[in-house]
Amino acid sequence: MSAQSNSSAAPSPDVDFPVEEPAVRQPFFSRVLAELGRVVWPSRQQLFSESVSVILMVAMSAAVVAASNRLFSWIANRVFLG
Q1: pTM of the model
Q2: Measured between alpha carbons, how far is residue 62 from residues 37, 50, 53, 54, 66 in Å?
Q3: How far apart are CA 41 and CA 69, in angstroms?
Q4: What phi and psi values does residue 37 have, to the nearest 5 degrees?
Q5: Which range has the worst mean pLDDT, 17-26, 55-64, 68-77?
Q6: Where are the domains of the chain?
Q7: How crowded is the C-beta side of 25, counted as CA atoms within 13 Å?
Q8: Cα 62 to the chain's mean position, in Å?
């Protein structure tokens, strides 16, 4: 066994990680506004089309769950209630 076999979770000293300034120097709300400025907001067309597709997928999923519920209820009634 070598002396270097002691594995630690600490990163090697030659790796540079970005150091952020302490939160005290920059107020919270200005940081929130800066973050909101980086957001890529969808267009009205994109928002509408994606909302329609989400609503359709939820409706189709609900229909599949309802159909499988009715099928398994029917099977259970046939098996257990004769």
Answers
A1: 0.53
A2: 37, 18, 14, 12, 6
A3: 39
A4: -70, -20
A5: 17-26
A6: 43-82
A7: 3
A8: 21
